[in-house]
Amino acid sequence: MYKLNRILVLALLVISFHGITSAVPVQLKALQIKQADSQIHLDGVLDEEAWKTADIAADFHQRFPADSSIAITRTEVKLTYDEEFFYIGAVCIDHVEGDYVVSSLRRDFESSGNDALNIIIDPFSDLTNGFLFGISPYGVQRESLIINGGGGRRDENTSWDNKWYSKVTQHEGYWIAEIAIPFKTLRFKEGIDTWRINFVRMDYKQNEYSNWNWIPRNYNSTSLAYTGELMWDKPLNDTKKNISLIPYATSGVSKDYEEGTEPSLIYGIGGDAKVGIGSALNLDLTVNPDFSQVEVDQQVTNLDRFEIYYPEKRQFFLENSDLFGDFGTQSIRPFFSRRIGIAEDTATGNNVENPIYFGARLSGRIDKDWRIGAMTMQTADDQDFGLPSINYGVAAVQRRVFARSNIAAIFVNKQPVPFLSPEADSVQLNSWNRVAGLEYNLASLDNRWNGKIFYHHSFSPDNPASPFAHGADLRYNDEHWDLRWSHNLVGDGYNAEVGYVRRTGFKRISPEIGYDFYPASKIINRHGPSIEYEVLWDQNNIKLDEAIGFRYLFRFTGQSFSYISLNREYVRLTDDFDPSRSDGPELPEGSEYTTFNSRFYFRTDIRKPVSLSGMGSAGEYYNGNLFRVAGNLNYRFRPYGVVSINYSYSMVRLPDPYHDADHVLIGPKLDITFTKNLYFATLVQYNSQINNVNVNARFQWRYKPASDIYIVYTDNYYADVFNSKNRALVFKITYWFNV
Asked: Which domains does the chain have, with CATH numbers?
């Protein structure tokens, strides 16, 4: 393993240099932008003189169904600016009769399955981080942060929210979008006169995706490696005072039926502040934060031996979140912000909410090459659960090297605070934990090569042996080939208490290979096989897990796709485990199982009012058998909402004396958008595995830009007898104003 590490480090360095010197040249378009000499009225007409004289971005390149021709659907985009705003004017031609393809009028709609124009902006031209602003033909807005170059499916943070303005007008055969983005919303360096930019047209009526600057069809439309140049007529100045305050107030009532207590009042005030330090750094502050309006997690049936990962959705933690949260891999994170405000009850081991007193976070860029981040959060003590007051601190720095690669370092500190924990004992006050990490992230200029290599080291009072985690990942991806190698080495003593680590004490390697064919077919857009292999050993080289899978995927021209896979899996249990996950008898530690199973997945055309996705698997499971079906059924009543239902059924059959189990999860959801600013959503989740029915209903009125009123109702019942566990009704109001 150590020899392998040295080989991979050398390979990453060679590829970094090779990616600069021999990368496929990226075709760069260029667009000039001139300052407007008169006021722009945001009316969706584009009749001001500045629009008449602006350069035009046209001749978009098709990316789907192919990437070798000019787009069928014509799109024209113009740009201008003044002292406060960056303006985008777009004319989107529509050749196909009928209604536009949209899911609803809800803000932050999904990019997939919705007609839209997206604007991709990279103010630092670092080809690594950027912004996305999108608009639908109905004037519905979406925005997101682009991270890690935007080349992967997970490289877009859609939970980010900010203030900007737009107006859309519909006409016979085309629609016009006029957009004004405050420079305060963007982060850029004073004196820079060139940005990177791209425009993405999603035209599901025509069944076509297109980009202004060409992007190969095997990469995402958000890929910053393939952005064009935006050349300003003069260097930009620093924005003026940039301070935003977002206070909130909450009121409500809750009742815990399990405890048998009287109804209790809920009330609170607090807020956030955003302070721009120059034009590229941002200081976020929060006092007594409240997250009652955050969308609930979609539950899953858990047959795994390890903790399930749920993404962060709280707004305070999102901007520049990759700077803190992307260290390591998906299953080895030294920092995971959802650990803050959620702690473990020392008596029961269950997760409980831990109120946050205040927090501060500084993040952003010093220049084109340097990014920095620092965060501190202070939580309250709660001796009912054995929790002292804890300070969470994180510091991170990132330095760009070569074309798009970087070297990054992180330090995470979890420290009890004695003077805020008067009743805590010495054991609680000595329960500190720290992690330091260093990594190199590879990204070639043409996006074909990506990878990373990292080393993390944890520190804790008991000073265990092997408190480290190491890993490396290398991927090559072009139009046909997708090749990947990854390995990990995690010590028994590695302990990242503020991170997400599925397991410790193992060595792992995992190669993958895939190939795509692009036939000249009116039915199939692409298809191809892939093979994945993974094996894990413990520190004594005893094999723990092994899996090999063969998959064949079809993507059809009509926006549907499917795959089938055949899999062989081996497991050696490191602890006693009940595979039925129903509190039944456990299989003994050290027992071994080799199983075979098959899986199938499909998704129908998402352009249609009714769409369906589903998966099924069947085969051997430990010492028994497992049959699973799951999926989602959607009905869109355009453009006002979606009715959907998630479903999952897992049938576990085991020999005596072990338990059989039938786990059912059903989640109907109603999402209504009365207008672009008035929403109602309700989600019911029946989960037989945890004997719970959860009801979450949320009314939202965006009465001003980035300012909302929420009414949230939650209720939990026992699934078997439908007796109430607890319920709450909360009213919350927020207001965003600039100082």
From this structure: 28-232 (2.60.40.1190), 241-295+702-712+724-739 (no CATH), 307-469+477-502 (no CATH)
